[in-house]
Amino acid sequence: MITPIDIVTQIRTYSKIFQLVGFTAELQRIMDEISTYQPELPACFVCFTNSDVSKSTDLNGYRATEYVNISVYVVLSTPSDITGSTAMTYDITEANADLCKCLLNWVPNKQSSMPISYEGYAFMTMSGSRTVYEVKFELEQQLTELDGFIPNYDTLMEIDIDSKYFKDGKQVFETETVSTK
Q: Which of 117, 147, 139 is closest to 56 using CA atoms?
């Protein structure tokens, strides 16, 4: 199963522009613009926003497809450009292209039935010195019974078998077999 850590690691490994890559918990600190917290920008923050699961298609077990929606929040710096036009044109185009080079068509694990696909981006918010965009990706991964709870049964130590053989309605032979490990 894919985790947000996998996405963060992939972006950190292959990104050419992002100075800070993390999780959405850090996004609020950046937007609050705490004077003691001066992050390196541009930055991006990963969040699994939701998932949908198809019905099981396997008659003998469990097999379904999960569609995981991944949002990457991109924070761009705009302190000298109070209109935000630089971040809205050049910077987001470059950041979007960089994220696509990191994630688009990547198959993160053996449960992934398809590579990660790109779903587009959208403007989120803007402050006096920061502009935030949401870049969306989707991943399809297979779920099987191995992804669920597997009870831990005691090891089978002995089998007792009582056998009776009948011929013409009468018992002719009886045996008891004990098999131990």
A: 147
